[in-house]
Design a protein that fits this description.
homodimer; 401 residues; alpha/beta; Carbamate kinase; eight-stranded mixed β-sheet; four-stranded antiparallel β-sheet
């Protein structure tokens, strides 16, 4: 079997952790597998390097920042290769460009164009464990690029896709994907399996386990992923196209506190209002979600939507002039909201899933501000003070105590 | 003019020093020159990385150590490029392989086979200051190698040679090459110029200003070098093929305290003794200098030579069995010695230079243990306690107060 294993910065933060990773990797190798390991920079390395750069030039070019930051993985891959060697197993480290990562030229947020796994394959043929620097590649000018947030997850999936690996394991500090945040909801259970689409909706809904880019790529190339802990040796959660039929209508309940609700109230009911509102928000490069348009009592219209909380002021600023010009009654921004989402492919075939969520919230006496949904997700906005209680109530409804 | 400037680790140890280097570089650029800058890793970076490796695997492979250590220059070149940018000048950093350094595969002590300066030239054509990672290259397997001690000096000279640069400036923490160590000899003067051969003999004699490999390469390709300080803006010492006629018989007096004298006393006078002695020492990979063979009073022979002090015990161990087998009277090792050398091309045409040295030492009542010489160097061994006095006396004889 060919297994790609990815370890984040906290999993290799010091000598002890590097050796722990080496043991996981060599145990997989001992079982007869070919193993490619993708690692991020150690713990705080990236932050330390950014600090060094800012001391010298707070506006250093992205090309030079990528040159600087990619040194971080260079350090971690060589240390991990040495750790594997110290356990008596053959290993070789490869930088992004040595491992065949070709990217576009968008420094700091480059996209992988192609992975040419020739060198990796040659090293595997020599029975070596191959340790690859995540997060980095090379553009057509032979310059180093980095992939941006969650880049190492994407690197791992890209290798798995290019080499048709049997499994791509993403090791993190959690044991897998849960039906709700296990630190907050006592009944939260670890899922055995979840589909790509469900995982994507979970991530977008506030459950930050996997980076969306990596899941999208895994879905596109049908790479089976597994999320698991680098500290506890237990099975994690598999992410794949089709999951076993389980008696679960939904896979999880997620909460996102980093949203704000913006509303323009009492606008005259003219055609093209929605277009005018959202084109202004889009121009400010703000992502909009949970759109709700309703007819007010006096024939006017209200439009409400959510934006990332950090963009709330900008969204209001982008709309202020327009709201005044059309004589809207009010332009409001509500930051004390939580978005509660349920996610599950089961919704596609069961009509009453959403109703179950509303029932649970009503029983808990929690008011719903707005509702939005996709094929496999239903999200509601509630007062932030009710957020945790809402998750509990909905989780209990679907999963029991 | 095309100028190559090299800065060592202490010259770029922190943000302040990096910005100082950026000012030197941009001042050279402002004068209308094309500038290629070669930098080492910052201050203690290399030591820190070695420590990290040793914590994990004290016997990490040299290939992985080179992967690890070469991250050091990657950090310093990007920081320097950002510093130059912050002063308002265009700069680009290049790793060893991007700058065209092809080496053999001897990890940790690789030799440069070729420098292909195509990319550097293209960047210079764009009017950029090119910042190159010293100390590193790429072998035919596309793996990163490092050049070993003094590697960045060699990198700088190799670029200067490949591009036929007009000058290769090596910035250090001293202001140039002196007639003697200026911290110890009050009358020591900075030399305006010195020949390659003189510089090589000076370095071998204990004056650690430039790495010999870089001077040998500069000599071979006739690259004019200059040794100067990164902290004081004053002219340094030029190293070149022919120096101006100066009324100086010698260029300097050097002292090397890191030698030991080994002697086998009272060996029977059989043919092939020297061969047998030195083949044994060579087998132990120990470099030998100042060989002296003399005939003892009773028809036996004595052989004495110097070795690096750190190898003294090994040299004695390598000879112990043999000395006993041939019935030598004694095998002694004297560590309390200093090697005092005078260096100067003037010796080639003036017979009495060596005599002047011996006279100065005799006047100071300092006993000479052994003498050795090359065309442009005379070295003597004296008691270590007399070392500083010997340098003073010889320096005074040739250079006055």
């Amino acid at each position: 079997m060919l297994v790609v294993q990815k370890f984040g910065g906290s999993s290799v933060k010091d000598a002890e952790h590097v050796l722990n990773v080496a043991r996981i990797v060599t145990d997989t190798y001992k079982e007869g597998n070919d193993v490619v390991v993708v690692v991020s920079a150690q713990g705080d390395t990236t932050d330390d390097l950014i600090e060094k750069a800012e001391e010298i030039n707070p506006r250093g070019s992205k090309r030079e920042m990528d040159m600087l930051l990619s040194a971080g993985e260079q350090i971690s891959i060589s240390l991990l290769a040495m750790a594997i060697d110290s356990l008596g197993f053959p290993a070789i480290s490869l930088l992004g460009w040595q491992a065949g990562f070709e990217t576009n030229s968008k420094y700091s947020t480059a996209r992988i164009k192609r992975v040419n796994p020739e060198r990796i394959r040659a090293e595997l043929d020599k029975k070596r464990i191959v340790v690859v620097a995540g997060f980095q590649g090379l553009n057509k000018y032979d310059d180093i690029t980095t992939l941006g947030r969650g880049g190492s997850d994407t690197s791992a999936v890209a290798i798995a896709a290019a080499m048709r690996a049997d499994l791509c394991q993403i090791y993190t500090d959690v044991e897998g994907v849960y039906t709700a945040d296990p630190r907050k909801v006592s009944g939260a259970r670890k899922l055995e399996e979840i589909t790509y689409n469900e995982m994507l909706e979970m991530a977008t809904s506030g459950a930050q386990v996997l980076n969306n880019r990596s899941v999208e790529m895994a879905k596109k190339y049908n790479v089976e992923m597994e999320v698991l802990s680098s500290l506890k040796r237990v099975a994690g959660t598999k992410v794949k196209e089709v999951t076993k039929v389980e008696k679960m209508l939904i896979k999880g309940v997620a909460k996102d506190d980093s949203v704000a609700r913006v509303a323009i109230v009492g606008m005259p009911d003219n055609p093209g209002i929605a277009f005018k509102v959202f084109s202004r928000v889009a121009k400010a490069h703000i992502c909009v979600d949970n759109i709700l348009q309703s007819i007010g009592r006096d024939g006017t219209k209200d439009i409400a939507f959510t934006v990332p909380a950090k963009d709330a002021e900008d969204a209001v600023a982008a709309l202020k002039e327009y709201a005044e010009a059309v004589g809207a009654k009010d332009l409001v921004c509500e930051k004390d909201v939580s978005k509660i989402s349920i996610v599950g492919a089961g919704m596609e075939t069961h009509e009453n899933v959403a109703a179950g969520m509303f029932e649970a919230l009503a029983d808990a006496n929690i008011n719903i501000q707005t509702i939005s949904s996709s094929e496999i997700r239903v999200s509601v906005l509630v007062d932030k003070k009710d957020g945790d209680r809402a998750v509990e109530a909905v989780h209990r409804h679907f999963f029991g105590e």
